[in-house]
Amino acid sequence: MIHWTTLLAVEEVAKEGGLFDIDATLPLMAIQFLLLALILNAIFYKPLGKAIDERNEFIRNNQLESKERLTKVEKLAQQYEDELAGARREAQKVIADAQAEADKIASEKVAAAQQEAQAEREKASQEIEQQKQEAYASLEKEVDGLSRQILEKLLGADLAAQR
């Protein structure tokens, strides 16, 4: 089953160089390996490394630009918030001033209306007093007239009785 001739050939080769035969093939293989490494480096690795470096540079630049933009946006947001707070304070001041002015105008109108009402009450009171005086005067005349008539009737009856 095992061929004796094959074993003899293998034995003969093994005796000549052993497991590692150092002859011209080893340096030739080393030169081929280095040459292949140089070719691969020139054709594949340098362009790939260059593309990776360019991509890294692109990403780094985009990150820096993004950070700068973010900083600008944050500054603008803070500035707008400050302006908005100032505008709110100013609007509140304007509202407070307008409300104070409205209160002042309202109180002036109320005071004027109260004065006018007081003047009308006084005028009405004077008119009532005048009408009262006129009524008293009119009643006094009527009372005097009635008193004379009563006296005349009483006295006339007494005068007629005395005569």
From TrEMBL:
Basic and acidic residues bias: start-end ranges: 118-132
Chain positions covered by the region annotation Disordered: 111-134
Domain of life: Bacteria
Transmembrane segments: 24-45
Classification via InterPro entries: ATP_synth_b (IPR034679), ATP_synth_B-like_membr_sf (IPR028987), ATP_synth_b/b'su_bac/chlpt (IPR002146), ATP_synthase_B_chain (IPR050059)
Keyword annotations: ATP synthesis, CF(0), Hydrogen ion transport, Ion transport, Membrane, Thylakoid, Transmembrane, Transmembrane helix, Transport
Compartments, record wording: Cellular thylakoid membrane; Endomembrane system
Principal place of residence: membrane
A GO term, aspect molecular function: proton-transporting ATPase activity, rotational mechanism
Pfam families: ATP-synt_B
Gene Ontology CC: one annotated term: plasma membrane-derived thylakoid membrane
Membrane topology recorded in Swiss-Prot or TrEMBL: Single-pass membrane protein
Description of how the protein assembles with itself and partners: F-type ATPases have 2 components, F(1) - the catalytic core - and F(0) - the membrane proton channel. F(1) has five subunits: alpha(3), beta(3), gamma(1), delta(1), epsilon(1). F(0) has four main subunits: a(1), b(1), b'(1) and c(10-14). The alpha and beta chains form an alternating ring which encloses part of the gamma chain. F(1) is attached to F(0) by a central stalk formed by the gamma and epsilon chains, while a peripheral stalk is formed by the delta, b and b' chains.
NCBIfam families: PRK07353.1 (NF005607)
Function: Component of the F(0) channel, it forms part of the peripheral stalk, linking F(1) to F(0). The b'-subunit is a diverged and duplicated form of b found in plants and photosynthetic bacteria. F(1)F(0) ATP synthase produces ATP from ADP in the presence of a proton or sodium gradient. F-type ATPases consist of two structural domains, F(1) containing the extramembraneous catalytic core and F(0) containing the membrane proton channel, linked together by a central stalk and a peripheral stalk. During catalysis, ATP synthesis in the catalytic domain of F(1) is coupled via a rotary mechanism of the central stalk subunits to proton translocation.
UniProt record similarity statement: Belongs to the ATPase B chain family.
Protein name (record): ATP synthase subunit b'
Organism: Calothrix parasitica NIES-267
Gene this protein is translated from: atpF2
